[in-house]
């Protein structure tokens, strides 16, 4: 949350029935070593791994908030069979009917997964296409092994035996799995019970739904308006919200202090928080283990707005509601620091979506178009919620 206010997360929820439960329990995995070490790339606060299917390499997201997913292109290339169709919802409560299929074989480094249930999605839509992912290694697939992840070292390990991982000095956090095996952690905020999805496909820190937020009880907060996230089926609708600092947040047997939480459409724990830890996912005992690797206090530093690309043009989509703030939702951005952004092709729009011009700047000059008129503003990066 230090650099970018626009988040990507691909949380998927499935209409649950007996067929779906059986579908997500399918599959097996073969390991070559007691502990398999997998090449992990942690970029833009998201974890990626290389996957081989039929001798061809693909880029997959390692996402505990979703089931295993393959692109429509892979589904068609392999001429896979449709098992059935079900309603699938994304992180922004958008829903579509998607094909469910079975992937005969997938290799992740030296691990071979067979007959894994997978959802077929179009992974080229809107900002999602900028990730250039071909699929997702999801919770139903992860649940077959124990995993240890350390983003700071680009380290991902898997084993059949938890005893191969030293659990000394780890915080223990119980969870309950959804039918698609996604871990959900119980906590409490503002006197309310909250269930946080443990989502390695969420690039942000913490998020709770508006119904779990109590504005009157949040002493340190900034009110916001707009949309700051993109899900599998598009962006969320603009809404009023807040970003606030909580005195304490209990997760398992540990209390975390001065955490920054935003309101949104889902209750989530994401990679902005997890990147400070080594963590182990244990579906057998329904536990997550956290060990702090660095102490990087939560900090909200921002120019007070964020933008998304609509038809390859950047548009102000999210603002802090502060007095005399010059930018408005819907302003079309012409340039930032004289970098022209209003006539980009698809590749250029993706480049600047993933590599924001303002990311490492302290001061920016923003030119926007509003009601057909060009307007120039100078903005300073500020620290909020101290």
Summary of the model, kept short:
The chain has helices spanning 18-24, 72-77, 139-142, 271-274, 346-354, and strands spanning 7-8, 13-14, 28-30, 35-43, 46-53, 56-62, 69-71, 84-89, 95-108, 111-121, 135-137, 146-150, 155-159, 171-174, 176-177, 183-189, 192-198, 206-209, 220-226, 229-231, 234-235, 239-251, 254-264, 268-269, 277-282, 287-292, 300-302, 305-310, 313-320, 332-336, 339-340, 363-370, 373-380, 382-384. Mean pLDDT is 90; it is low at 1-5.
Description:
This protein has 386 residues and is mainly β. Helix content is 8%, strand content 51%. The chain contains 5 helices and 34 strands. The protein has a 10-stranded mixed β-sheet. The chain has a 6-stranded mixed barrel with strand order 5-6-11-7-10-9. Strands 31-30-32-33 form a 4-stranded antiparallel β-sheet, with no helix packed on it. A hairpin with a 2-residue loop joins strand 16 (183-189) and strand 17. Residues 1-5 have low confidence and may be disordered.
């Amino acid at each position: 949350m230090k650099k970018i206010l626009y988040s990507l997360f691909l949380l998927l929820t499935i209409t649950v029935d007996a067929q779906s439960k059986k579908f997500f329990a399918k599959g097996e995995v073969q390991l070559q070593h007691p502990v398999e070490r997998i090449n992990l790339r942690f970029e833009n606060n998201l974890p990626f791994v290389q996957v081989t299917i039929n001798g061809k390499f693909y880029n997959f997201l390692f996402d505990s908030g979703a089931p295993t997913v393959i692109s429509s292109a892979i589904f068609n290339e392999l001429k896979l069979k449709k098992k059935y169709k079900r309603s699938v919802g994304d992180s922004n409560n958008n829903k579509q009917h998607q094909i469910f299929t079975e992937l005969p074989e997938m290799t992740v480094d030296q691990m071979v997964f067979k007959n894994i249930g997978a959802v077929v999605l179009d992974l080229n839509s809107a900002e999602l296409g900028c990730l250039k992912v071909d699929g997702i290694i999801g919770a139903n697939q992860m649940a077959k092994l124990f995993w240890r992840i350390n983003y700071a070292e680009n380290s991902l390990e898997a084993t059949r035996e938890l005893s191969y991982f030293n659990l000394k000095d780890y915080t223990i956090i119980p969870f309950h799995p959804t039918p698609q095996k996604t871990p959900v952690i119980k906590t409490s905020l503002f006197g309310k019970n909250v269930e946080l999805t443990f989502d390695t496909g969420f690039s942000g820190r913490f998020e709770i739904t508006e119904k779990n937020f109590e504005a009157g009880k949040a002493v340190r907060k900034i009110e916001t308006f707009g949309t700051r996230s993109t899900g599998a089926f598009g962006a969320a609708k603009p809404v009023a919200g807040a970003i606030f600092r909580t005195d304490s947040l209990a997760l398992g047997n540990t209390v975390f202090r001065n955490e920054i939480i935003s309101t949104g459409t889902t209750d989530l724990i994401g990679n902005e928080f997890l990147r400070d830890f080594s963590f182990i996912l244990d579906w057998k005992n329904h536990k997550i283990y956290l060990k702090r690797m660095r102490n990087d206090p939560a900090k909200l530093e921002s120019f007070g707005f964020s933008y998304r690309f609509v038809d390859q043009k950047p548009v102000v989509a999210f603002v802090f509601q502060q007095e005399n703030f010059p930018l408005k939702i819907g302003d079309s951005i012409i340039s930032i620091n004289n970098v022209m952004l209003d006539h980009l092709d698809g590749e250029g729009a993706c480049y600047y979506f993933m590599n924001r011009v303002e990311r490492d700047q302290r001061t920016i000059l923003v030119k926007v178009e509003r009601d057909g008129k060009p307007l120039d503003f100078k903005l300073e990066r500020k620290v909020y919620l101290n």
